[in-house]
Amino acid sequence: WAPTAGLDAIFSSDLSRAIHTALPSADACGIELTVDARFREVHFGRGEGMTSAEMRSAFPKPYQAFLDRPADTPLPEGESGTDAIERALDGLFAMTKKGKFETVLLVAHSTLGRLLLCALTGIPANSYRRVLTQMHNGAITTLDIPDVATPAELRGNASLLSYNLPT
Question: N or C: which end of the chain has fewer CB within 10 A?
């Protein structure tokens, strides 16, 4: 038994719910938690905290556009999924470049996680809700990510080894 559980590093979004989820693992493994805002959840703008029915009522056309093309079309005053993918790919590249860390635990968020999985495995990002219908809280998803020279080279080059496994 290795006290680090085979992990070289533990990263988390800077949102408190992700930090609180990651800290027990970091403490148990004796690894310092690295907090990185690039792994923050997609910002849903005026849709933050609203139900689907509330968004449909408040801004019907932008909401329908978001439903039709969720990665390309942000909610009003929100962040696009494609922009979120770019920032997360930059964070992932910084985390994994040149063999800096081999086995990493990343604690992030459902929508960002599904969008990032699409980018890494070559699934069209606008399909994330249909192909990766949900990502459970606390579930384990495992990827094999190659050592690449640029963040753009991460696109479509990772292998999905497991998805949404219970802890």
Answer: N
